[in-house]
Amino acid sequence: MKTVARVWYDDATDTLVAAEQVNDMRHISRVFVCQKYLAGNREAVSFAPGAGKHAACVAAAGDYVFTGGWEERGRIWVNRMSDGKQVGILDPDATVGGVAKTGWIDILTGIMAHRRADGEYLVFVEEDFRGKVLLYRWRP
To answer: How far apart are CA 63 and CA 104, in angstroms?
Structure first.
């Protein structure tokens, strides 16, 4: 990894998630997940975000990493931490006007994720069209 764009660490599971920044300082190229980091493990699972060259933000919670991007209009990709495999896509639905009525997620901190005690994930997404925050409720 050349330059780190964003880092998330979970003390309870000793898991480090880091996103690699590309040259323009606004996009991420890969996400790295290192489990048992403080215990000494330096082997990481890595994957390219679903938004491809438009990827701009990342968040992690529980067993999953969530990524989004500039031109993807509120769409969020979900990858499993253990192997990096894509397991889902969260799309804006008709209650917010669908994909056509959502905007770019254009900041590194544009996503926040939280795993609830019942296993449901809450994913908050800042998108800049009509100034709204999307809330996805997702259960794997």
So the answer is: 26
Supply the pLDDT for residue 101.
84
d(CA 57, CA 45): 18
Reported as a single tens digit per residue, the pLDDT across 105-136 is 877 788 999 999 999 999 999 987 777 789 99
Give ∠ CA 76-4-12 in degrees, rounded to 5: 70
What's the rounded Cα separation, in Å, for the pair 138 and 140? 6
Residue written as tokens 């639905």? 93
Which tokens belong to 71? Answer: 């031109």
Cα–Cα distance for residue pair 12/22, rounded to 1 Å: 30
Can you read off the two tokens belonging to residue 81?
């931490």
Q: How far apart are CA 5 and CA 10, in angstroms?
A: 17
